[in-house]
Design brief:
alpha+beta, 25% strand, 8 helices, 341 residues
Length: 341
């Protein structure tokens, strides 16, 4: 049990992977230079009743017919390529920051000292190599496209390091990389991963990446920006509101960030075919909201806090994978203070 004098009740870390919003453009696969911003389109549609009905309605054909006859009128946002466009271009930037050795806020000097020593030991041994390669792999496989990745004939990911005097470019065919596992036989993935790892391991250095992803999906096909969370839908006229920035369809930076940090294959159920969710986003409790499940529970002693409380005080964890997970959560950032009561 932690000694009371070695408890930080105020403890916070800034995120070290900082993506921008993703901006969406339309173009042609054979003429990629000619691009135009994609705009949202508002549609009014008449849908059918398809939700589960009460048993009394289900069992009475007359009541069912009366229910089905009701108009299900909706106004929604959609986004699609132009008539002559067959390719989506997604553009965003990613800043990778160093300095994970120092919390952005910590109110206990003893804890800060033991934490900094533990992180310095990890960096000396591992140099962030594994995490860097995994983040690079999620750029190469275009996981950040989410739904836009499905049904694409070709996907090209162009990554460029913009740091002055150290520019470098990588081009990936995302269709050759799996989204269910990590394979590091690709030289360019390892090269990009080394640049990311170098920035993460530094005390105050950084890396700026520009990413352009081209997705050949078919002429005039629908594409999928982020959907806005509308807290009070009752007062809105639309049932689906999509995200845009200055009239350009876009993806939330949070959604891109979630894809990039989907590197956790170290949770207990990963190898179980029936229950595995594949690589999941780095989260303190392994939360996957669309499945309504936490894959890392305190009961099983697989959550971030169980590992971190020991790791940060200089205790050795059983597996190097657990250290990777702890460090990836610190790269994610957050407020992790512990009660001193």
């Amino acid at each position: 049990m932690a000694k009371k004098e070695n408890i930080a009740s105020v403890l916070a870390f800034e995120k070290k992977l900082v993506p921008s919003d993703g901006y969406m453009y339309g173009t042609q696969w054979k003429n990629k230079e000619n691009t135009s911003p994609l705009k949202l389109i508002e549609k009014s549609v008449r849908g059918t009743i398809s939700n589960r009905l009460k048993k009394a309605v289900q069992d009475d054909p007359a009541k069912l017919n009366a229910e089905v006859e009701k108009a299900n009128l909706q106004t929604v946002d959609v986004c699609a390529l132009g008539v002559d466009q067959d390719t989506l271009k997604l553009h965003f930037t990613l800043k990778v920051l160093g300095g994970v050795q120092q919390p952005s806020a910590c109110n206990n000097a003893l804890f800060k000292q033991s934490y900094s020593a533990a992180v310095a030991g990890y960096i000396e041994r591992e140099k962030f190599t594994e995490l860097g390669r995994r983040y690079a792999y999620n750029l190469a496989n275009a996981r950040f496209l989410w739904r836009n990745r499905v049904g694409a004939e070709n996907i090209e990911v162009q990554v460029k390091a913009l740091n002055k005097d150290n520019e470098q470019t990588w081009i990936f065919d995302a269709t050759k990389f799996s989204t269910r596992e990590f394979q590091f036989e690709d030289q360019d993935v390892n090269s990009l991963g080394a640049r990311i790892a170098q920035a993460l391991a530094s005390a105050d250095d950084f890396l700026i990446l520009e990413i352009n992803c081209l997705v050949q999906t078919g002429k005039a096909q629908e594409v999928y920006p982020s959907e806005e969370l509308v807290l009070d839908k009752g007062k809105g006229k639309k049932s689906k509101i999509l995200y845009h920035v200055n009239d350009i369809a876009a993806m939330h930076s949070q959604k891109i960030g979630n894809a990039l940090r989907s590197i956790d294959t170290w949770y207990p159920e990963y190898d179980d075919i029936e229950t595995s969710a594949g690589p999941i986003a780095i989260e303190p409790y392994g939360a996957v909201t669309n499945l309504g499940k936490a894959y890392r529970t305190p009961k099983d002693k697989q959550d971030f806090y169980t590992f971190f409380d020991n790791f940060a005080r200089g205790e050795k964890l059983d597996r190097i994978e657990d250290e990777h997970y702890v460090m990836a959560t610190l790269v994610r950032g957050g407020v992790f203070g512990e009660s001193d009561k």
